[in-house]
Amino acid sequence: MLALTRKKGESLVINNNIEITILEIRGEQIKIGITAPKEVSIYRKEVYLQIQEENKAALSQDSLEALKNLF
């Protein structure tokens, strides 16, 4: 993990096309802005993990059997 120190209004750039800007610092919360191409998906980690779990559930054996029965 790379750890960086940034102040309000400062940014960092990832892969030449994603910019993360510190918008506001309030106590223990930091508000960030992300500028990225539309094809780049951006999720909060808890949402991303939930999506991954739902995808795994969709690939369960029952789902695979249902697909096999289609053919």
Structural class: alpha+beta
N- and C-termini, Cα separation: 46 Å
Percentage of helical residues? 25-40%
The biggest beta sheet reads: 3 strands, antiparallel
Order of helical and strand elements: EEEHH
Give the radius of gyration: 19 Å
Which geometry do the CA atoms define? elongated
Numbering strands along the chain, what is their spatial order in the largest sheet? 1-2-3
Report the strand count.
3
Strand content: 25-35%
| Regions with little confidence, pLDDT below 50 for 5+ residues | none
Mean pLDDT value? 90
Query: Looking at the chains present, what oligomeric state does this protein adopt?
Result: single chain
**Contiguous helical run count:** 2
